[in-house]
User: Fold this.
Amino acid sequence: MNIALIAHDAKKKLMQNFCIAYRGILTHNTLYATGTTGRLVEEAANLNVHKFLAGHLGGEQQLGAQIEHNQMDLVIFLRDPLTPKVHEPDVNNIVKLCDMYNIPLATNLASAELLIKALERGDFEWREMYK
Assistant:
């Protein structure tokens, strides 16, 4: 499965810890991330991550294009809802695209853990029908 990892600055450490905790599951999938998040995850969890540009430099648009072309099976986007972002329309675009193209999306730790456990159980096999 192709998994996208995105984290706002205030959530990057949480993303690192999440990837460390679920390394055993994540290592069996193909990981994609915006630039800084990808680098931090690689360093902390020793996982291979395909890195796009940093989110504010176009990485969110690159991931959005992957979603539009049905090349992502799961998106984990740990958002910071309390700090306004200069590039907020891009943030909202990822959420909108996941809704439009029926891509499972986690925007907080609780939903990320539920989806990663579902992935481990094999609950994402239905995604093969979409490809």
